[in-house]
Amino acid sequence: MVYTVIDTNVIVSALISKNEKSPVVEIVKRAYAGKFRVLVNNAILAEYGKVLRRPKFGLALQQIVETLDLLAEISVNVDVPMSGTILPDPKDVVFYDVALAHQDKHASLVTGNMKHFPNCFFAVTPREFLDRLELEELLDGNFAGFGQTLNDCRGWTRYC
């Protein structure tokens, strides 16, 4: 099973996208379908709510509530220690910490803001994350034993 932390910008982009085939929309659809495990903690859920409520996104309150409820329902809520990591945007540390604490599961952090996570080997773009999901599905379905090898290659397309 693939584990990931989804940065707020991916959730927002999916909700406001007009392109149903965009990587961010596809990620949210696959999360809702249970194709991978979403890792959150209470601070991440609060950040999702705070950002989704910004008037500039034009989201209806009902859509926000339904999205937050569904994300809470499908996610694994975890408590993690603070790493003390310093990032360009201090609000991103919680996302980093949750993914870092789950490297035993090879957790990734999918974000549209790669510059916010410099030198972070487990941060990936939405497209890279979808590529990984598609490759895992292919390998798990056709090549017994290759799934763990793929998981061992934590940087996926950028580093392997």
Which key features would you list for this structure?
five-stranded parallel sheet; Rossmann fold; 160 residues; alpha/beta; 51% helix
Write the layout of secondary structure elements.
Elements (H helix, E strand, L loop, with lengths): L2 E4 L1 H9 L6 H10 L4 E4 L1 H11 L8 H14 E3 L15 H9 L6 E3 L12 E2 L1 H17 L3 H7 L3 H4 L1
Parallel strand pairs: 1-2, 1-4, 2-3, 4-5
Helix pairs in contact: 1-2, 2-6, 3-4
Polypeptide structure, described:
The protein is an alpha/beta fold and 160 residues long. The chain has one domain (3-159): Rossmann fold (3-Layer(aba) Sandwich), CATH 3.40.50. Helix content is 51%, strand content 10%. It is built from eight helices and five strands; from the N terminus they run E-H-H-E-H-H-E-H-E-E-H-H-H. The protein has helices at residues 8-16, 23-32, 42-52, 61-74, 93-101, 126-142, 146-152, 156-159; strands at residues 3-6, 37-40, 75-77, 108-110, 123-124. A five-stranded parallel beta sheet has the order 3-2-1-4-5. Helix 1 crosses helix 2 (23-32), helix 2 packs across helix 6 (126-142) and helix 3 runs antiparallel to helix 4. It is globular, with a radius of gyration of 15 Å. The chain starts with a strand and ends with a helix. The model is unreliable at 141-160 (pLDDT under 50).
